[in-house]
Design a protein that fits this description.
This protein is of the alpha/beta class. The protein folds into two domains: 33-225, Rossmann fold (3-Layer(aba) Sandwich), CATH 3.40.50; 231-430, Dehydroquinate synthase-like - alpha domain (Dehydroquinate synthase-like, alpha domain, Up-down Bundle), CATH 1.20.1090. Helix content is 48%, strand content 9%. The strands form two sheets. It has a six-stranded parallel beta sheet, with helices on both faces. A two-stranded antiparallel sheet has the order 6-7. A hairpin with a 2-residue loop joins strand 6 and strand 7 (206-211). The termini are far apart. The protein binds zinc ion. Zinc ion binds at residues 191, 241, 245, 309, 323, 327.
Length: 431
């Protein structure tokens, strides 16, 4: 796909009307106030002025924008050539392809990279890095779910040589993200990868994670329109991932007061909107979910994930359970487990009272009065959107429990507010 005529503006005007309430987000002045309150939360922390030229690009806070603003963003940044990393199906179905074609025809040269699988493999990332290095792009734009966004992050970071790239992801060779702007346009509401500085990549059957402040997107387009074609099961899996990330982030022993505020808002949005986003979607609930996923991503960027994620990877790698469903399987079991924390097994420097307060905030964010009620509400939501609340529900035999307990990612478990021995995990999975 290529175009390449002089940039020009499409649409009514370049004048951006700022929101009458928060005076920040352009284009949101027509939204109902209820919707706007949510947006204000998302906007918090991204306050204007947008760019401080004394800081490098990677130090800048992520900015939020809308699809309808993207043409103006490209023009404002004097972009003439764009490298687009796009998930092929999401790109076509979400309507983003039409949009990028319009950009290519009217605005700038577009190089499209779509040659990668879900759960990014190192070879795909190396191809993407080569294609990006050979392009003269001014900006790299990821369009799709977590995989597309991760491939774009990797394309900016790793070598174009397989051997060297493998050493880089293993941490035996240094690497540095490319300095050109990185924009993310999520088409699913789940991983929140557009809000984090992490990139996941698989090599030789192993999962590796890169982390660098320069991997954060400089600009994120959060537009429910792009998620409207997302099918129910994918919406459910992604939405459960966001919901679990929000809950885990709230009780994580690395959480800060700011990250908890993001996570709590993410949980409220996801809890109240996920069921309808799966079964009877409209733009309002899908917008709530895309914002929930983004806020949860921002929160785990700080707090990292905990026990439910630690227990999920084996369920995905061995039994093919989609990530969000795998994480949700043990969410409520972990909620009960963490609620019973004591001085003997406390893993949180801020003390027992702190952990109990966080659990209470989770209960309230689910609209419940008691832990039991919150557990019932969460379990019923997980089942209603197609999930399971035990491994047996996925037709996995109880014989597998020791293997699942042995497989846990110890690093993730260290963020959990209650210490968990192998015997604890076996009991948790068996109950
Ligand atoms: Zn996750």
């Amino acid at each position: 796909m290529a175009g390449g005529v002089a940039p020009r503006f499409i649409g009514k005007s370049r004048v951006r009307r700022l929101c009458a309430v928060c005076r920040r987000m352009p284009g949101y002045e027509t939204l109902p106030l209820r919707m706007h309150r949510r947006l204000r939360v998302v906007v918090r922390g991204y306050s204007l002025p947008i760019f401080d030229m004394s800081r490098s690009l990677s130090d800048q806070p992520t900015r939020l924008s809308q699809l309808s603003e993207l043409q103006n963003e490209l023009a404002a940044a004097s972009v003439r050539s764009i490298f687009v990393v796009a998930d092929a199906v999401a790109f076509r179905e979400s309507g983003a392809a039409d949009f990028v074609q319009r950009i290519a025809a009217s605005h700038a040269q577009v190089t499209l990279f779509q040659d990668f699988q879900a759960n990014p493999q190192l070879e795909d990332a190396v191809h993407a890095a080569s294609a990006f290095a050979n392009s003269d792009a001014d900006v790299i734009v990821a369009v799709g779910g977590g995989s597309a966004i991760d491939i774009a992050k990797l394309a900016r970071s790793i070598a174009t040589d397989n051997t060297l790239a493998f050493q880089q992801i293993r941490g035996t060779q240094s690497w540095q993200p490319d300095g050109r702007p990185f924009w993310a346009v999520p088409t699913t509401s789940g991983s929140g990868s557009e809000a984090t500085q992490f990139a996941v990549v698989y090599a030789q059957g192993q999962k590796y994670s890169l982390s660098h402040p320069g991997l954060r997107a400089n600009l994120v387009v959060l537009d429910a329109e792009l998620t409207m074609s997302c099918p129910p099961r994918l919406t459910a899996s992604c939405g459960l991932d966001a919901l679990c990330q929000a809950v885990e982030s709230m009780w994580s022993n690395q959480a800060t007061e700011d990250s908890v505020i993001d996570a709590e808002q993410a949980l409220r949005l996801a809890f109240s909107s996920l069921r309808q986003a799966v079964h009877a979607p409209n733009k309002q609930v899908r917008q709530a979910m895309i914002e929930a996923a983004h806020l949860a991503g921002r929160a785990i960027q700080v707090s990292k994930t905990t026990a439910p994620h630690a227990l999920s990877y084996y369920l995905t790698s061995q039994f093919g359970i989609p990530h969000g469903f795998a994480v949700a399987t043990n969410l409520v079991r972990c909620l009960s487990f963490n609620a019973e924390v004591s001085e003997q097994n406390l893993n949180e420097d801020r003390g027992l009272t702190h952990v109990r307060q966080q659990i209470q905030r989770i209960v309230e964010a689910c609209g419940a009065a008691t832990l039991t009620e919150a557990a019932e509400r969460l379990n019923s939501l997980i089942v209603d959107v197609g999930g399971q609340t035990s491994i047996v529900g996925w037709d996995i035999s109880n014989d597998q429990i020791p293997a699942i307990a042995a497989s846990v990612n110890v690093q993730r478990l260290q963020n959990n507010p209650r210490k968990a021995t192998s015997a604890d995990l076996i009991r948790l999975l068996s109950d």
